[in-house]
Write the structure tokens for this entry.
Amino acid sequence: MSADLIMSILLALVIIGAAIIILADDGDTDRKLLWIITIVLLPAVGLILYLLFGVNFRHHKYYDRKHKPYRELFAREADAHIRGLVGGEGRTSLVRERFRPLVSLLSSQSRTGVAADNDVEIITSGPRKLEALLKDINEAKSFIHIEYYLFGSDEGGTAVRAALMKKAAEGVEVRFLHENIANYDTKRSFYNEMRQAGVELIRVFNPKFRLLQFITRLNYRNHRKIVVIDGRIGYTGGMNIKDRYFKKWRDTHLRITGDAVASLQHIFLDLWLASGGTLKRPLTEYFPADTSAPSAPGTIRGALVQVTPDEPASKWPVLKMSYIWAIQHAEKYIWLQTPYFTPPASVLDALKAAALSGIDVRVMVPAEAETFFMGHAIKSYYKECLEAGIRIYERGGGFIHAKTFVSDDYLSSVGTANIDARSFEINYEVNTYIYDEAAALRCKEIFEEDLAISREISLSDWKKTPVGRRLAQNLFRLFASQL
């Protein structure tokens, strides 16, 4: 048997094996077919690309194994108080009846339920977020848990780092989950100095370096933004720790005090232990009985809040499903803001169906996208959205990075997830859902304030787009799931 024949047989076996693995996987049929075609046409390149971008980890066995350390700790040490805080037992009935199925959907995976009596500050100013965060860090007494997608070495990042290092030197437990690849442009010494000062720092995904694990998870980003201070104060939303969020961009973030902080703590500790971290004290000491803390003027008082995480290892893409549910069940309106609008087909169909049925559906995106290719990809969705009656606004006055929606003067969401496949299927994300009229009206007011510096795009505007640009938009749309 010739060497060429042997190589051909081996290549055929590799392609067949890869095809079987892909076909056995759960998920979208079109996506699987695309990967099989790619591997058949370009075997070597296709296999590498599949390992980098195509492996689907939404399998409950892998999820259960990864989260086993925290689940065992929680089962062993969590008392009735902690279980009540995280699970929200008895609080679902406080939510308006038609929104209770959403509560069940969101809690089906993470088991984080509704928390009552929360004070929520909706922050739209970068300087305000930095000021409040630094103040709360400097006043921490027991522990600080912090997790950010981007944590830069610029002015704002250096100020937050200095505050964290100072508290660690004072004996406060400081734990920092570090997204490695997204911060490639920050010198390693910036983080090493934090560790030397007493900050417990772990890079997410690879506590022990394994080549295959590194390759297959290279495409996954920890896109969450979480801060928990003494178990009483929590931050989450769109703003990272970098100057462009504090000085240039328009974003939306939350400062939460009350029982919902326990859910942020629960989510952080789960990933901390999954990433190889340890705790110095019993679990009960990280969930204080008294969750009250000072609130700023303008804070929404007594809100019902549900914090929900998602990740590529979980069985169900609950954040994507929550968007579909909220869109499908809107009775009057649903207004959405996102910096990256490349919706999966199921979300796009829900938006179009809502608009066609008479719901006021509005989508706000930046007038100038962050990147050239993302701008083209976003605009490729305009035509079908406009034809269905969805109103699209491009906001000027600087890049808008907010990931929010508000519906029917009651339900609002502020989170880390964009309306794209990367956030809904690939990234580690966390969204906060607020069941409260005052919070919804404030989110609606923020949207209307942004409308004042926005331009509504009409179908006639789109028809003026040159043919060449339309082709470029459709080309970049092919890669929208990885942008």
Notes: The radius of gyration is 23 Å. The chain is about 45% helix and 20% strand.
